[in-house]
Structures are given as C-alpha cells and as structure tokens.
Specification:
With 357 residues, the chain is of the alpha+beta class. It has eleven helices and eight strands. The two termini are 17 Å apart.
C-alpha cells in the first residue's frame, strides 16, 4: 500500500491539472503563427482572476505561495537564495522573504492592477537578494559581478545604446522558470489582436506610451521595445530562448502552475506547451502551430525525456500512458478551510502527502 501511495503522490503533477480547463482551452490559437499566434494565446489566458497582493487571508499572494512554492519538507522554494525558510500557515509571510515581481513592476509604471498581482511572475524571494536584483532584466553579467543570495548581478554592454546596464542571472536550474514567466507576461499583457496594448496603464497620464524605455534607471529601457509584437529586444530574446532550451520544464514548475491555476483559473502556455515559444520568438517563426503535434508537459512520458527533447519541438504528442503495475488512481484536489487536500481513491492527504485522519 505504501508503494502504491508513493507512486500515486509522485505522479500527481502528471495525472492532475489544478482544475479542469474548459474543453478546447487553446482552440483559438490553433493553426496560427507569429503575431497572430501570440495575440490569440493572449485571448486564451488574459481573462483570469486577479489575486489580492500581500498576506493574511485565504485569498492572497502568500496563500498561493503556500501551495505553489512549498516543498515536501515544508520549506519555501526560494529561487533567489539557497538558504530556505519554512512556511508556517497559509497566508503568512515566510521569515526573511518578500514578494518579488520577476517582471519588474516599474517596467509598466508600477500601478497596482492585474500584472502587479499575477502569480505566474510573482515569487517568494529573500529580501536582500530581491533588493539587490532591483528592476534589472535577466541576462549574463560580463563585469562588476557580485553574488546576492544565489544570483549573480552585474553589468553587460548594450551595443544598440552603446552603454552598460545591469542584469541578474539566476541559478542554472531556475533559468527556464524565469524565461517562461517572461514569455507569459509579454503574451498576457502584450499586444492584442489589434496590435495594441490596452492593459498596460500609461505612466504618462496624458497618453499611452507602452513599456517604459525613457529612463536609464528602469531596466525595461534595455530589455523591451514598443515597435512590434516580439515585445523584447533582440538580445533578451536570445537570452530567454537559451535559458528556455537549456532548462526545460520540471516537476516543480508543473506543480507550481497547478497551484496558481487553482486561484487564477488560467494557464501558462509556455509551461504547458514549451515549443510555443519557438513559434513566436525562436526557430519556428513563420510556421503555423498545431497543438496536435506539440509536446504537452502533462504527457506521462514528458519528464522522462532527455533534457534536449523537452522543449517539445522535436517530439510529437503521445497518448497518456499508464503504469501497468500500478492500480488506477482517482485523484481530486480540494481547498478546505484554506488548506490543500488531495483525495486519492477516497482517502485524503495534505499537501505534504500525510494522511488526514
């Protein structure tokens, strides 16, 4: 029985979505390419529930983190620091941590609205590391390098602007996580079907001006552009695609997406179908995307693929397979009094796998 339970619990990221997405969730994006593909993906994911930013309730950012970023031993999986602290109760702040906007809020003016509260790019972060990272874009620092938490922070040269600017570099095992968060944000809050960006409030109250590119102290000047649907500058596209390919989707990311989806009721398509990033920014630009041929990270064989095959572009979709040696597992997730409860074949367990009597 213990072996069966272990198999069932370990398989949960593959067997479950956080909730049942509507049938045909991505149908609008089927057969699209380039700007049209990105715009239709936006239509699929943009309408979602905004979670109040902060702590102290069963419907807040720190409550989401309790389920999305807690490991089996109860520690907060802080991507900014190797010295992890434990969660206490849902909604409570983890000691020494705060809420970090991986896609810096100053890039769109810092106003408190949907992107400010979107948990797909919010992370629990060591306070000192978060402060050192500031509003810098991701990248590979070339000089003046310091380490804060588990990140490297330093300067790189921007050829287009003929000047140095600051970037942050996370650990290798988190680089893909950040890349896919950036792809999500540029899609969810980027240009719509009319090639406009109505969701980004202008920091200039008189007119809409897009991403901030006016100020040397704001990282988006060096990272973003307002000329076309790609959103990112060329150098950052190269960095993000490299990280996306080198650090494919992990079980940790799937678990995190499930938990965020429970609250926001939308998905990150670049976690669920990694190759979509290639159709918009990468080696498959100009090609139409068919979801029937894209590798889905919930296919049962996905996590067992070699790392260089998990970007999805060299794979075709496969039928979900079951382990013949394991009995059929019926698993359901509930939120009960603010706690995640996993029910497997009628028996309830908490988020750490302990049976609830």
């Amino acid at each position: 029985m213990k072996k069966i339970l272990f198999i069932a619990l370990c398989a949960l990221p593959l067997l479950l979505m956080a909730e049942s997405m509507p049938a045909g969730y991505y149908d609008k994006a089927e057969g699209k390419k380039d700007a049209e593909l990105k715009a239709w993906l936006r239509e699929c994911i943009r309408a979602h529930t905004s979670i109040p930013y902060g702590k102290g309730s069963t419907n807040c950012t720190w409550n989401v983190f309790y389920y999305s970023d807690q490991n089996e031993e109860g520690y907060c999986e802080d991507m900014y620091c190797d010295t992890w602290q434990k969660f206490t109760t849902p909604g409570a702040v983890v000691s020494g941590c705060n809420i970090e906007h991986s896609f810096a809020k100053s890039w769109w003016g810092g106003k408190k609205h949907d992107p400010y509260e979107d948990c797909y790019h919010l992370n629990p972060s060591n306070e000192a590391a978060n402060s050192a990272r500031s509003n810098y874009p991701p990248g590979i620092p070339e000089k003046e390098i310091i380490t804060s938490g588990s990140m490297k922070i330093g300067k790189r040269f921007h050829a287009g602007l003929n000047m140095d600017h600051s970037v942050f570099e996370p650990k290798d095992e988190y680089k893909g996580d950040f890349a896919r968060a950036y792809f999500y944000m540029a899609t969810c809050y980027g240009r719509d079907l009319n090639n406009e960006q109505p969701d980004l409030p202008a920091y200039d109250k008189k007119k809409y001006v897009g991403w901030r590119t006016d100020n040397d102290q704001v990282g988006s000047k060096f990272a973003m552009q307002n000329d076309n649907y790609l959103e990112f500058q060329d150098w950052l596209i190269e960095v993000l695609l490299t990280w996306h390919r080198q650090d494919p989707v992990s079980a940790k990311e799937l678990k995190r997406m499930d938990a965020v989806s429970d609250y926001q009721h939308n998905r990150n398509p670049f976690i669920e179908y990694p190759c979509l990033a290639e159709y918009i920014w990468g080696k498959r630009k100009g090609q139409t995307a068919s979801f029937a041929t894209l590798k889905n990270t919930y296919d049962a064989d996905y996590l067992s693929l070699p790392a260089d095959k998990r970007d999805g572009c060299d794979c075709t979709a496969t039928e979900m397979v079951t382990q013949q040696q394991a009995p059929a597992v019926k698993a359901i997730k509930h939120i009960v009094n603010g706690q995640l409860v996993i029910e497997i074949n009628g028996i309830q367990y908490n988020a750490q796998g302990a049976r609830i009597e």
